[in-house]
Amino acid sequence: MPEKPWGGRFNRETDPGVERFTSSITFDCRLAAEDIEGSLAHAKALATAGIISREEADTIAKGLKEVREEVLSPDFVPDPAYEDIHMYIETRLREKVGPVGGKLHTGRSRNDQIALDMHLYLLREVPRIDELLRHLQEAILEKASVYMDVVMPGYTHLQRAQPVLFSHHLLAYFWMLQRDRERLGGVCQRADMMPLGAGALAGSGFELDREEVARRLGFTRLYENSMDAVSDRDFLLEFLSFASIAMMHLSRLGEEIINWSSAEFGFMELDDAYATGSSLMPQKKNPDIAELTRGKSGRVYGELVSLLTTMKGLPLCYNRDLQEDKEGVFDAIDTLKPALKLCGEMLATAGINGDKMEEAIADEFAMATDVADYLVLQGVPFRDAHHLVGRLVGYCRQKEVSPSELSQEELSGFHSSLHREKFRELLKPRNSVETRVIRGGTATSAVQDQLNRAYQQMQEINLNPGHISG
Fold this sequence. Notes:
- By secondary structure, the protein is mainly alpha-helical.
- The chain is 60% helix and 4% strand.
- The strands form 2 sheets. Strands 1-2 form a two-stranded antiparallel ribbon. It has a two-stranded antiparallel ribbon with strand order 3-4.
- α7 packs antiparallel against α10.
């Protein structure tokens, strides 16, 4: 059994059940690279402050790099006998370089050490996640560009409402993802704070140059309060909030794809590589990626609620409860990244049935608002126009005829300005679409402008902090 770093105070060995219950090495081993990076910077700071010699710092650095090769090897299996990855690395370092390895932890606590590891880890993941978000945006923009001429029903309450361009519908998801990327930028800013030097809670007892350590690790800001530094997990909560919202957006997109690829809609067909079949029914083609993404959103929400619950009653400073901050973040990352990747690929390879979409919007009642708007231009107050067109729709339903089948006499009975030829033009979905030239509207010119803005704004976000090495 490895020697406990705090064992000097105790006269009995830890109960094996306690060992198992408190150990975190099975999951915090993924922080090994960050832990060693922080230790290398700390060793240099100790040497700069004259606390250890340059030769000792070099020896420690050499040993840490050897340990890094071991723990980053695909064959590495964490030893559950160790309390955490930090103690495993320190133990292996001492085995390699001797007693000088014991000097590394001078002026440092596991409290500021683990906080640093989580900051570094999240900052490495941020640009990878942002890249996946951007790839999904690119898939959306590509589809929107190719199918600019396709008109489809827009829906409210899952009922056909007004005609829109299919591109316009897709671009709504682009802007959701753009806000996700902006939120991720906020995560990056809050994670870009260096806690090392805070010690256990009161600050290091040695005059280490925290600014230099921060520069060496690539941080642009320091925690200004040592107690805040070791107990803050806001940046992880903010990440989980971002991840939850992003998964919600993917779930909504997944729901659209599930509907569109059904026989009832028939708007889309998934590529065989991104669908599955039934073990019983040979004809089935199931949108499992979309369904699982929709289902997995709940687990990411759960990670956010779990950490919020853990944090809500904690006094300053470090409490062992904070060990629970890691698994939820790791799971959220492991859930979000493949969901983003596969949703992007699924959408990029999907076939679009524009004819089916336009067939679905052929119902002339979908242009009722256009008729009301036309009456407004003739001087009719909108509420009166709305009521009038509602009566016209009811009349058609009762007579079981479409609006274009109404005679001039029937139309004049509703309002004198309803001329049959103009009325029929109002009932064409494409004409309806092209009236909405307002910025953010669904007219072709407005959607093209939206596309141009989307391409430009997508490139303006660049989450690549200087210390991220990949």
